Structure formats: structure tokens, C-alpha cells
């Protein structure tokens, strides 16, 4: 099994593998080119992002600067919006639903490292996928940790650190992020 196959399977893998280094280098070149564009270069921005992601949902928009590890592990739905300074460590799959918005400085981390110091010293790492539903709003400066799922129509407060799954239709905030309240009041039946 290749190091990339191990990475995508969520197993420990060596990030110094030549193929992975090459793919990260490609992503760095594409994101640098994207980040160096001006607002007047909309077509060039779209071309660079399409090359980075392979496909991008119709009407999606990313404000530079933007950074990611690979790009190819990111799936964007339609009309996704990323504000300035967002980072996605897409070592595992990151799936983002339609009409989802990210405030400035949101960080999405699929990468994780062994808790055992001896294992960490080996340089091996792993990853867990992140899934974000439709119509989600992630407030500025929020951090999404490896393996979390955020349900559709949920709002995550600015500065939150999401360490566990958050259900649909709630407002959640804090460090660690927790559900504060439902977004829709139940109607008496």
C-alpha cells in the first residue's frame, strides 16, 4: 500500500513520501498563484482553484489568501464562500455542502498525530475526514478538529474549537464547542 493510500485510509503514513511531497508542492504553487491574483483576475482565480480542487461547486468563491495541503481531497458544494485567511489541512477528505459560509481565519484540520511520544518521534501521522453539511455558517477564527461532522443549517460561533460532532439546526460555540440552543423552536402540536 502506498503512503498516499495509507493517508487516505486514515492509517499512519509517512508525510515525507516523494509522491506526497510532490503533491503538496503542487498545491503550494497553485495557492501562491491564486493568492497573488488581484480582484480583477476573476477568471484566473477560478481556473487556478479548478486546477487545485479538480472540481469546484458552481458559484463557490474563495477570498485570498487561502491555503491547503493538497486541494484534491476537498469537495465543495455549490455557492460555498470562504472569507480571507482560511486554511484546510486536507490530508483526509473534507466535504463541504451547498451554501456554506466560512468567516475569516477558519481552520479545518484533518491531520492528526500519535499521542504517544515515541510514535510521534517516528514522524508518522494520520488523518480523519471532516464533513460539513448544507447551509452551515462557520464564524471567523473557528477551528475544526480531525474527524468532526457539522450538521446542515448549523451555525458555529466565532472562535469556537469544534472537537466533536455538532448536530443539524443548532447554534454551537465555545472551546470546546458545544450546542448552545436549537435554531428552530419546536411548534406545539
Automatic annotation (TrEMBL):
Residue ranges annotated for the Maltose/galactoside acetyltransferase domain, each copy included: 4-58
Segments traversing the membrane: none
InterPro entries assigned to the protein according to its UniProt record, in alphabetical order: Hexapep, Hexapep_transf_CS, Hexapeptide_acetyltransf, Mac_dom, Trimer_LpxA-like_sf
Keyword Magnesium belongs to the record: no
CDD domains associated with the record: LbH_MAT_GAT
Domain of life assignment: Bacteria
UniProt keywords, alphabetically: Acyltransferase, Repeat, Transferase
PANTHER family recorded: ACETYLTRANSFERASE C18B11.09C-RELATED, SIALIC ACID SYNTHASE-RELATED
Family, per entry: Belongs to the transferase hexapeptide repeat family.
Protein name as it appears in the record: Sugar O-acetyltransferase
Native species: Billgrantia endophytica
